[in-house]
Write a structure and sequence with these properties.
Blueprint lengths: L3 E4 L5 H16 L12 H16 L3 E7 L5 E9 L8 E9 L8 H14 L6 E7 L4 H7 L3 E13 L2 E11 L2
Parallel strand pairs: 4-5
Antiparallel strand pairs: 1-2, 2-3, 3-4, 5-7, 6-7
């Protein structure tokens, strides 16, 4: 089984709640998506609202991977740059695949769907993202064609005494 991917799906209550559940589940499974477990959907909600507002304002796009039954199984947010000298590349935020689907290739499918979607955006030459060191996810992004282009040691404080590197990765599209 594979996922069905969609760029900019209609934001319905079902989609909103599905993204909230996914974000909380990924966080609680130890995923590096902006929170440290344990979290609830209510803790995540304000961050999702910020992303939804940015989508409404045209500053952000959403790629969603759906299971056959319509359940949200994977997502990422694609953010445009607002700086006039950096409008030729986008950021990826909150790249997530539900923990129950880890190891099925859905992460690679999500990254390919995102790359295809971004290639369809006018004037975009590259995709940038950051990831938390110590998780191994930088190796995953590397296997998807991203290159490490920077690292800020200890920039992410997961807990007192547990600082992680902020790894900057880039995928040129040309």
């Amino acid at each position: 089984m594979s996922l069905r991917f969609e760029l900019d799906p209609p934001v319905t209550p079902e989609l909103r709640d599905g993204v909230l559940r996914l974000w909380a589940d990924v966080s609680n499974a130890g995923g590096a998506v902006g929170f440290v477990p344990p979290v609830t959907s209510e803790v995540v909600r304000p961050e999702l609202v910020k992303h939804l507002v940015a989508m409404t304002e045209g500053r952000m796009r959403l790629v969603v991977g759906y299971e056959r039954d319509g359940t949200v199984a994977a997502t990422t947010f694609v953010a445009y740059n607002t700086h006039r000298l950096m409008k030729h590349w986008v950021w990826l935020y909150t790249v997530m695949v539900h923990p129950s689907h880890q190891g099925k290739g859905y992460g690679r499918d999500l990254m390919a769907a995102v790359e295809d979607a971004v290639r369809g955006l006018d004037g975009i030459d590259a995709i940038r993202l950051t990831c938390r060191g110590g998780t191994g996810v930088d190796r995953f992004y590397g296997s998807c064609g991203y290159k490490e282009v920077g690292r800020v040691p200890g920039a992410i404080r997961v807990a007192e005494g547990d600082d992680r590197d902020d790894i900057i990765m880039l995928l040129p599209l040309n």
